[in-house]
Amino acid sequence: MRAVVCPKVPIAPSELVYTTTHPTPSPKAGHVLIRVRAFGLNRSELFTRQGHSPGLQFPRILGIECVGEVHDAGGGGSWQKGDIVAAIMGGMGREFDGGYAEYTLVPHAHVSHPIKLPQGMSWAQFAALPETFLTAYGTLHQSLNLDSNDVLFIRGGTTSVGLACAALAKSTLFNSPRVIATTRSENKVAIARACGADDVILDRGSVAEEVKRFTGGKGADKCVELVGGTTIADSCVSLAPEGVISMVGCVSGEWTCREFDPMMCLAPGKHLTMFSSGIIDMSTAPLQWIVDAVARGELKAGVDKVFKIEDAGLAHEYMEANKAAGKVVCVVD
Question: Do the domain assignments include residue 293?
Fold first, then answer.
């Protein structure tokens, strides 16, 4: 089968190996064998390629998500051959070979129910949704318990998850709380507004004063932290006295906080939590609702650029250069 292999780490994007002769995985009980049609790229795959995911064995096919068609259902479940599905996490691209391939074998628990793909929705559009929008949904619903009366602050607002958080917040699922988002690029302000941000702040390192100004001195009620250790202290200062911040992503590459005094940053009664897509329950995740909302125009798929599987190295290079405002996708024709 066709596949993109990471032979070792760390490597440059150009050192990812595209092959047409990789062994195709065999059907296995308790797993769904998926004919991959497209996959979204994620920062975690970039970090793995750079050597920041300890304990993994190489060579490895990367990819923590994919969309495609069921080739074999592995017994049990509600799937039939030909069903359209999405798969995320569960060890994909880390503990076992992932979505950067023509076929992938994924445990039942990490595969969606069959999805009815609306007429006109492309594989690339569908591939932009599962990991990104389900992470955003879980963050807003489960981690932050977002309310329509809240002010939501998104640090890293033009990342794919940041844009999805803004779009979902403005959807009928969360009834349009006020959204403040950051971006480091003036060229990305318009996309942040188009996806639902009411106010956009150019992030030069410290934004707490501007967030306070936009909120009449109070600060934001809820915060999605997507930049990571370099900004989390400042994001905490941006919160209202009893605000909640959820650490979700790390586009800065800094997972740890070098200068973080919790007694100061979280005073007087702020809360720090986190969310990971690894805890998403695919059996209850609202992926069909998200797909349908994109089809009717309530949400935007957020596709920034589409590559072919053989150009996955170029896609990584594009993502690593922070050129994207939204999701980078590879299709497997």
Answer: no
